[in-house]
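FIELD: query
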Amino acid sequence: DMPPAKQISGQFYRQLYHSASRDIHSLETNWRRGHYILTSVDTGSMALCLQCDEDKIVTGQGDSTIKIWDKSTLDVLNVLKGHTDSVWRLQYKKNVAISGAQDHTIKLVPHSV
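FIELD: result
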């Protein structure tokens, strides 16, 4: 199960926002320039949301889990459990995932891979 939510400073959220903005800009630029490779992966259940960084892809799943994938091999590195319904919202930074689910809860999930 996921540990209880911890209080996080405003600095964490400011860094998270700037990181997400850079990622979105990079994705949009690469897409427009045709710099992408499309790969299909069987996630085991429907992936409802995702986020990635240099090394990992993190998905919110319809089976109430969060999966962390190795970006280069597409292997599952970790499966985080704690929600009781589909994970629809996800924000990921380094070793923390914040998720919102159909079970009307928000979870703050520190993890290691």
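FIELD: remark
Residues 1-5 have pLDDT under 50 and may be disordered.
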